Amino acid sequence: MNIVLLGAPGAGKGTQAQKLVAEYGVAHISTGDLLRAAVKAQSELGKQAKSYMDSGSLVPDELVIALVKERLESDDAQRGFILDGFPRNTSQAVSLDSALAAMDMSLDAALLVDVEPSVIVDRLSARRTCRSCGYTGTKDDEKCPRCNGEMYQRDDDKPETIQHRLDVYENQTAPLVEYYRGHGILKAVDGDRPVDEVYADVKEMLGL
Ligand code: AMP
């Protein structure tokens, strides 16, 4: 199973990816998680990425593409992978295709988790993330239900940044829906429903 997850920030890509990983043991490659870890570790990549992330803009392609290529070459990705938050624009999608071809791999599906922008704003404003394990919850979670870690609000989930992230999605990422439709691998699920209903559809769409 080699899959790309598409959808606006807050559509539920990470949640669906976590469920697929738990059930099928594939690698979860979330560029947002990898970049946040680099910022936390204050690595060279983290220092370069931080200002873009804080403002809700995309980190330069060459940084993100190098990160994803390294991750795709690791052992656990050979059993299958779910890319979450990558590609974010056409140039990243083209780079992904050639990186996979060079490794004799290809994508099985690009799965769009489709949610209206008005729903997204509400969801992102209420979203809280675990500082220890990255679990995504809501402001009702006082502690992380998975590891009891501290829940916090990501800087880029604050109202002033959310609209910019949605604009970036519309202008740069949404065109990928047509890109993957053109490649004949686009599948879509309605993401504006309870998590388990969406997951049931995801599995059906992926033939699992
Ligand atoms: P996410 O957790 O996927 O919402 O990503 C959080 C932030 O990380 C984004 O707003 C971007 O600044 C950066 N980011 C994540 N993935 C990418 C990507 N594929 N290309 C460029 N920037 C990215």
TrEMBL record:
E.C. designation(s): 2.7.4.3
GO CC, any one term: cytoplasm
Cellular compartment(s): Cytoplasm
Keyword ATP-binding: yes
Keyword line: ATP-binding, Cytoplasm, Kinase, Metal-binding, Nucleotide biosynthesis, Nucleotide-binding, Transferase, Zinc
Residue span of region NMP: 30-59
Ligand binding (AMP): T31, R36, S57, L58, V59, G85, F86, P87, R88, Q92, R154, R165
Example of a GO MF term: ATP binding
InterPro entries according to UniProt: Adenyl_kin_sub, Adenylat/UMP-CMP_kin, Adenylat_kinase_CS, P-loop_NTPase
Positions bound to ATP: G10, A11, G12, K13, G14, T15, R127, R193
Cross-referenced Pfam families: ADK
Reaction catalysis annotation: AMP + ATP = 2 ADP
Group of enzyme by EC: transferase
Function: Catalyzes the reversible transfer of the terminal phosphate group between ATP and AMP. Plays an important role in cellular energy homeostasis and in adenine nucleotide metabolism.
Free-text comment about domains: Consists of three domains, a large central CORE domain and two small peripheral domains, NMPbind and LID, which undergo movements during catalysis. The LID domain closes over the site of phosphoryl transfer upon ATP binding. Assembling and dissambling the active center during each catalytic cycle provides an effective means to prevent ATP hydrolysis. Some bacteria have evolved a zinc-coordinating structure that stabilizes the LID domain.
Name by which UniProt lists this protein: Adenylate kinase
Organism: Candidatus Coprovicinus avistercoris
Lineage: Bacteria, Bacillati, Actinomycetota, Coriobacteriia, Coriobacteriales
